[in-house]
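dude i think i finally got it to work??
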Amino acid sequence: MPCDLILALDVPTREAAAPILRQLRGQLRWVKIGLQMFTAYGPDYVREVAGLGFNIFLDLKLHDIPNTVAKAVESLGPLPIQMLTLHTAGGGEMMRAAKAAQQKTNPNLLLLGVTVLTSMDSAGLNEIGVTAQSADQVARLGKLAADSGLRGLVCSPLEVRLLRAKLPAEVQLVTPGIRLASEAGSDDQKRVMTPADAARAGSTYIVVGRPILQAADPAAAARMILAELASSKAEGLKG
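look at this
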């Protein structure tokens, strides 16, 4: 399965985002709009970015009682979005309610269940009372999401092979926590991997922010990552 690139548009203002989006038009297909930008600018900004020709991954990580999440999915469904996130920790009833709302309002929308945030490790889970290791918790929540009807997950690239072994092949895996091999640190991400390694592991999409946003030439950085993904696909075909 080929792996595609999603830009995480994690910038403070639409003015900061505008020149980056202009450079990237025609270079990549996907943009992730997260809680910061959606809170600041709302649905109209989603429509604005979609109007530039990008597919939209709306990353709001919905987590509430089942009825509230279902109503939120119904409200968001008419927007020009192709992916939407919710927390699998909300439980099976919540995810089933979200799935029913998605089917009613936007049948083509891919609901993505967030397993364990890539900023968390086993020590962080222990702080909130989860005694399982991070990989075990990801596997448990991933299976719960698939059993609840979700056909996409957000996970660390380090858990992709584990999930591929346990879940139906059609489940799409979206992996943040991507860093270039040349980067010295991983910032606030604790469970990270390079683009090529994530693709070889079985990611459907990788999410990249700072390596593109902070590059002197964002379009060139995006092309380099896309070339790395294409190379990893070619290696896989040869293998």
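The first strand starts at residue 4 and ends at 8.
im so relieved honestly
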